[in-house]
Amino acid sequence: MLDALLKAAIALPICTLPAKAGQLETANGxxxxxxxxxxxxxxxxNSPLLWFQGPLAQNYDIALSATLDSVSGASPQYVSNQSGxxxxxxxxxxxxxxxxxxxxxxxxxLGNMSLGATASVSSEHDYLSRGAGIDMRFDFNNKLTTLxxxxxxxxxxxGSSIDRSLHEQRLSHDFLIGxxxxxxxxxxxxxxxxxxxxxGYYNDPYKFTLFFFPGSPAPVLHRDIRPDRxxxxxxxxxxxxxxxxxxxxxxxxxxYYADDWGVxxxxxxxxxxxxxxxxxKLRPGLRYYSQRQADFYGTVFSSSSGVGSSDExxxxxxxLAPSLKVSKELSxxxxxxxxxxxxxxxxxxxxxxxxxxxxxxxSARYLMLGLNRQF
Length: 375
Prior knowledge:
Layout: H1 2-9, E1 28-38, E2 43-57, E3 60-74, E4 77-80, E5 87-90, E6 94-110, E7 113-124, E8 127-140, E9 145-158, E10 168-184, E11 187-200, E12 208-211, E13 220-223, E14 229-243, E15 248-259, E16 264-277, E17 280-292, E18 317-331, E19 334-346, E20 362-374
Parallel strand pairs: 4-12
Antiparallel strand pairs: 1-2, 1-20, 2-3, 3-6, 4-5, 6-7, 7-8, 8-9, 9-10, 10-11, 11-14, 12-13, 14-15, 15-16, 16-17, 17-18, 18-19, 19-20
């Protein structure tokens, strides 16, 4: 959940898929603030974000963003079956972490097409990620149809504060193809297919499993060990429809995800935006998520070595996430927005049942404030 929220706060992903390939007419910028807290007091995050986008020169746009995440809470999680059943537990130590991230994108417009180049960096005391990407967009069919192609590469350096000798790398290549179709003046549909292939270090150095065999004098420790390759495919389709009589807009998103670790996931997202006049806008939303566990997920292993992970994020579960956003235009060029959301995850929420029985219910909430200005 935290990863998804922080990525949503960053305005410039490497592979973007805008609705149309047209140069920005005005500049926009702002500041956002995100507070995220988990229900058991495990993690608390405060994250300010600065962003700007606008015309750079004739036929050029630029977009920038920068954020600083301050993370505090409990330290690494482990799983133990000492009580007779697997229990996900936190160690007693506490953590304080800061993450810095920045993105920049420059877009060049050439008639009915555009070419964009993106660079990004994200750093923590034990992690460094650098990315670069390009995307091309083509307008045709009287600019009612837009085709998008994108490619990106990300290089990650992984370390550990509990194992200073750990210096591992991971390299990922991402590809995207998508199409946006304007159906009529009130509705459009957008669909894209993305593929990622990575190689390198995927283990989580902060997670491990303690399991007790009957009659064994001591527990066996199994560290988090995952395959060194991962292929991921995602298909995302969006539908947007405006209803003039109600001054409202409907947004529906569906995303299917699959990887060669055995994870299969479905995400269904609904939101309804309503204009109330005098600059007020309300947007309630609801997201449902369902995931099948990775092939190597487990809480008891036959030995202390070999591929296996008890990371609950690789388990089988479902989640519901309602949200509410309120926006107010303070002037012709300035607006303020406030968004609140709640996340509830349980094994029984998985579509079709069969969630991981060892996973305890998990909840989190977030608050996001934003001030936006047009220049």
